[in-house]
Amino acid sequence: MIMSFKKVLVLAPHTDDGELGAGGFISKLIEEGAEVYYMAFSTAEESVPEGFPKDILKTEVRAATKVLGVKDENVIIFNYQVRKLNYARQEILEELIRFKRIHQDIDLVLLPSINDIHQDHSTIANEGIRAFKTKSIFSYELIWNNLSFNTQSYISLEEKHINKKIDALKEYKSQGFRDYLSADFIRSLAVARGVQFGVKYAETFEVVRLSIK
């Protein structure tokens, strides 16, 4: 099934969300020959710790996605204000539709869960589904924001995919204080999901839509 996804779009409300929710899957997709695009909507300049340039997350997201194998020209970064994406809902939808017109052959979109309680995440989830409603759509897991999450699809991962995910997240040096970026957390969650699936490591996704043509 994974081989059928040839052109994939990852929607990240903030830089690092895509890697946190789907870094292993992204790595595996690229390994299998898929073309992956990564779209981040906020670089959260207001939340950057003192001592770092305000635009540091633009640099860090490019470094992180490069570790996973995403081409630099496929990384699209917007600078909407953090925690206020809902105020730019229509602009965001129009950006997504513009992208879809150019890349009509996108066959999988990865985005946050509809049940994610962060206001920016829910905005990207809703507008992403609106824009790509005819495509296959999987929601990735960010357990600290998900009051509920339907583990409907599991992606089996190898050690190398988890290591790439961990190495990618290490590029976010400005965010190193966040406990959910730690290697121990990333690995333990992958192990837990793997136990549920009967493999060593896994990531899990909600299936919003599976489009078979």
UniProtKB/TrEMBL annotation:
InterPro entries: GlcNAc_PI_deacetylase-related (IPR003737), LmbE-like_dom_sf (IPR024078). One of its GO terms (molecular function) is hydrolase activity, acting on carbon-nitrogen (but not peptide) bonds, in linear amides. Gene3D superfamilies: LmbE-like. This is LmbE family protein.
